[in-house]
Design a protein that fits this description.
alpha+beta
C-alpha cells in the first residue's frame, strides 16, 4: 500500500506516529510524509485522486494539516480518521454541541470570543475551566475560581481566538483516558494537569461496562475509528471532558503495531468502521474474530483477515482488552482488564 502521513513539526520526533511510519515501512508499504507547517506543497500534484490508499493526520489543532486532509477527502481519497469527523472534535465548541445533542454526558459549555465576556456568567457557574476552542495537548487550559479572577486571564487568552468555558467537575484529581484502536478499548488513569500537586503516576486500569459503553458511543457519535476520550468521575457519574483524534495511545500494549494494523485495515476498507457485533457478544474471555476486511484470498496469496501470517508481518501480541461494541449494544457486559496488568 501507499500511504501519506501529515506530520507537523511538534510531532516530528514523537513515537506516535514516527514509530508507526517505521513499522509500516518495515512491512513493505510505501509511506510518504508531508510536513504541512514547514513545506511548500504543489497542491495540484500532491493532492490528487489515486495518489495514495489513505492519508493519515497527526497535526496540532488549528494547523494547516486538517485543511490538507479535507482536500484529500474532497478528491476521493480515504482519510484516517474521516476528515469531517476530525473537524467535529478539533473544534471543541462544535464537539460540545454534537455530543450533548446526542446525549453524551458532557458539561454545559459556553463560548466567548474574549475572556472578559465570561464575566456575564452568574457566580454559581464558577469555578470554570476555560480553554481555546481549537486547543490541544492541554494548551492554555485554566481553572478560574471566581468572576473576579477573569481579568488575570485576559493577557494569556486574548490571542487564543474562540474560547469555551465549562463548570468545573469536582473529582479526585485523576483523569481517565480511554483509547480506541483496532476496534478495542483500553483505559489508563493519570494525574490531571489541573491538579499538578498530585503525584504524576500513570497506569493501565480496568474498564467498567458503563464507561466502555460510553467510549463506544463516542466513536459512533463523532464517526471516529482511532480516538481517545478523557473522562472525569464526578459526583453525579462519569463526564466526558474531551475527545481526541489520533491520540498518543500511551500504555496501550503493542500500540505501534496495533495502530499500524488499524491504519492498514481502514485503508483497505475505505475508512469504514468495522462491524463489531461479534466482538460485542463475546463475554467468555475469548478474543473476537478479526475477520473485518472481507473475504480471504482462498489460498491464492497471503491471508488478509488477521487470523494468520500476512504480507504486512506477524500478528501483534495478544493482550487483555475491551472489545468495542456496536452503539446499539453498549449495555453488554464487558471483560475488564486485569486490575494489576500494565502498572
Amino acid at each position: 500500500m501507499r500511504l501519506c502521513f501529515l506530520v507537523e513539526e511538534q510531532y516530528r520526533y514523537d513515537g506516535m506516529p514516527v514509530e508507526v511510519i517505521r513499522r509500516l515501512t518495515a512491512w513493505g508499504h510505501r509511506v510518504d510524509v508531508l510536513r504541512p507547517g514547514s513545506s511548500l506543497l504543489r497542491l495540484s500534484e500532491t493532492v490528487r485522486a489515486g495518489s495514495h490508499d489513505a492519508w493519515v493526520l497527526k497535526t496540532v489543532s488549528g494547523g494547516p494539516g486538517l485543511t490538507l486532509l479535507e482536500a484529500a477527502a474532497a478528491v476521493g481519497l480515504t482519510t484516517v480518521n474521516d476528515a469531517r469527523s476530525i473537524r467535529g472534535v478539533r473544534d471543541k465548541a462544535l464537539a460540545a454541541v454534537i455530543g450533548r445533542s446526542r446525549g453524551l454526558p458532557m458539561p454545559v459549555t459556553y463560548a466567548a470570543a474574549r475572556p472578559d465576556a465570561l464575566a456575564e456568567l452568574p457566580e454559581t457557574e464558577f469555578p470554570l475551566v476555560v480553554k481555546p476552542a481549537d486547543g490541544s495537548s492541554g494548551r492554555a487550559v485554566r481553572v478560574v475560581p471566581s468572576p473576579d479572577r477573569l481579568a488575570e486571564l485576559a493577557g494569556e487568552l486574548s490571542g487564543e481566538g474562540m474560547l469555551i468555558a465549562q463548570p468545573y467537575v469536582r473529582n479526585s484529581g485523576i483523569d481517565l483516558k480511554v483509547y480506541c484502536v483496532g476496534g478495542e478499548l483500553y483505559a489508563t488513569e493519570r494525574c490531571s494537569p489541573l491538579h499538578p500537586d498530585r503525584p504524576a503516576h500513570e497506569r493501565r486500569v480496568p474498564l467498567s461496562a458503563e464507561i466502555a459503553g460510553m467510549a463506544a458511543e463516542v466513536g459512533a457519535v463523532y464517526g471516529l475509528d482511532l480516538y481517545g476520550v478523557d473522562v472525569l468521575l464526578g459526583p453525579d457519574g462519569p463526564v466526558i471532558v474531551d475527545v481526541n483524534d489520533f491520540p498518543s495511545f500511551r500504555l496501550v500494549p503493542d500500540a505501534v503495531e496495533r495502530v499500524a494494523r488499524a491504519v492498514l485495515e481502514l485503508a483497505r476498507t475505505g475508512g469504514a468502521r468495522p462491524n463489531m457485533g461479534e466482538a460485542a457478544s463475546r463475554t467468555d474471555g475469548t478474543r473476537p474474530s478479526t475477520d473485518r476486511t472481507g473475504p480471504r484470498t482462498n489460498g491464492t496469496g497471503p491471508r488478509t483477515d488477521g487470523t494468520g501470517p500476512t504480507a504486512d508481518g506477524p500478528e501483534p501480541g495478544t493482550a487483555d482488552v475491551i472489545p468495542l461494541p456496536e452503539p446499539a449494544r453498549v449495555s453488554v457486559q464487558f471483560r475488564a482488564t486485569a486490575a494489576g496488568e500494565g502498572r
